[in-house]
Amino acid sequence: MREAPDLAALKARYPQAFRVAWAARLTGLGGLGAVLALAAFAMVRLDFSAARILNGLGRLGEFALLMLPPSPEGHLADFLRALAETLGIAFLGTLTAACLALPVAFLAARNVVPNPVLHFAVRRALDVMRSVDVLIWALIWINVVGLGPFAGALAIACADLGALGKLFSEAVETVDRKAAEGVTASGGGALHRIRFGLVPAVLPVLGSQVLYFFESNTRSATIIGIVGAGGIGQYLTELIRVLELQQVAFLVLMVLVTVALIDAVSGRLRRALIGGEPR
Amino acid sequence: MDTRIVPLAAERGAALEASYARAVAATRRRTILTLAAIAVLAVAAGFAAEVRPLVLLANLGGFTAYLGRILPPLTIANLGGDLAEWYWGLPKWAALLGETLLMAYLGTLLGGLAAFLLCFGAAANLARSRFGCVLTRRALEIFRTVPEVVFALIFVIAFGLGPMVGVMALAIHTAGALGKLFSEVVENIDMKPVEGLTAAGASRVEAIRFAVLPQVLSNFASYGLLRFEINVRGAGVMGFVGAGGIGQELLVAIRNFYYTDVSAILLMIIATVVLIDLGTERLRHHLIGLEQAR
């Protein structure tokens, strides 16, 4: 038989452990209250209504039934061409962004170009490019090169240039500087220092980041067609609008499978690049 | 002690040089092969994406001209008047931008909540059954692979136009993305406190509350803030498909060639995103500092 612990005696012996930390509790509750109050305000402001949600859920249920079974209904060739276009957009966009980001990153890295003005200017320019969404870039490029996948590739390149430039320059800044010092000590110039002291150390890191971006860009490239910049998004938008839900489900499945495949391949490539343990 | 560098014997030196040359040649071959593969893929992708370099070259002037056209005519003499004319729609745009921020906030909060509830089931060390774990993970994967705009397109038809739909789309995508990150954090915790509490008779919920949460909460908050930043950007384009926020206004301005409106709205979006970036970055560093101090 287990005895019930004598709580009163324990309390008397260890008052510390039983004291309620009112200050911490009140701050926690206050923070939670503020978060919930803002959420309630947001729901009112954004016209949340239970009736609409219930109605909508009913219709969503109908849609889910209409999606079964997923089928291309004779448009398989068109869909595959659109998928290839999507992959092309993602690949070219990522490649262009990576090629442009490499020199820019060295300009934006504090340990390569010790000029605070240039450093600041390049960083802010990258911030601006990064904060404009891919879809907005696509709209802008459509004005320049016309409708089609080319505008999509350029849009992805622009949006990624900002993100990759920032990541690359951070990688360059955190690199071990002993190698570069060694190159200088044995008589190398500034370019030698970059070529033999920095590039070999950062290239695998950069490569794995580029692979990550290719993965996420495959996802972005599927929606870029919504504004008319090519790829599978064009079909997706039209088919959702006319409620051809079986074909929509087929398209979504195609995208899911493609992304999973790219995930697997790039995961393997990334491990080969970094030389880590295969998991 | 007398140490001298003894030169290598001639044949050993030659062997060494030969093996060095072989190693360099092998690396060079691999580099060339990789570059060739990338080039072939790029050409294939170029065909798929209908790249027309000539069109780009011919219209590149158009890009700069476009940039020139969307910038407003500001004169020193009449700066106030010009600014007022440029930002003629400021009250409306500010309200829409506020709506966009609220959408991002609510989407992150609801999605984060769902992710929080699901992540313990998706973490291998806390899941109650292997089957449930795999099922949760697959669901999260689907939530984050389907882009939020696609969810928004479908929801707009089911629920009608409006910002509520945008919030739901953002929330679902957030649940998928955060659920994965959260479950990875949970998988990396120290299991000893959990074992201790379970041994003392705690239920699963009690074990999570007192042994897991203290270890993961600051990481969760940091990931949540990062997601909020991403969702602000995402909420900005929800209007393109009629799901609320400032996107609708921007789309109309770009499509109808209201040039100075484009730059005015874009600048507002960029400023907001950069400010939120900086703010959340500071908060996250603070959180990471807390984590390391523990």
Automatic annotation (TrEMBL), chain A:
Keywords: Membrane, Transmembrane, Transmembrane helix, Transport. Residues 83-266 form the ABC transmembrane type-1 domain. Its main location: membrane. GO terms for cellular component: plasma membrane. InterPro entries: MetI-like, MetI-like_sf, PhnE/PtxC. The chain crosses the membrane at residues 20-41, 89-113, 134-157, 194-214, 221-237, 249-269. It is a multi-pass membrane protein. GO terms for molecular function: ABC-type phosphonate transporter activity. Pfam families: BPD_transp_1 (PF00528). The keyword Transport applies. Belongs to the binding-protein-dependent transport system permease family. NCBIfam families: PhnE. This is Phosphate-import permease protein PhnE. It comes from Methylobacterium symbioticum.
Automatic annotation (TrEMBL), chain B:
It is a multi-pass membrane protein. It is found in: Cell membrane. The chain crosses the membrane at residues 32-49, 102-128, 149-172, 257-278. One of its GO terms (cellular component) is plasma membrane. It comes from the Bacteria. Residues 97-280 form the ABC transmembrane type-1 domain. PROSITE patterns: ABC_TM1. Belongs to the binding-protein-dependent transport system permease family. PANTHER family: ABC TRANSPORT SYSTEM PERMEASE PROTEIN P69 (PTHR30043:SF1), PHOSPHONATES TRANSPORT SYSTEM PERMEASE PROTEIN (PTHR30043). This is Phosphate-import permease protein PhnE. It comes from Methylobacterium symbioticum.
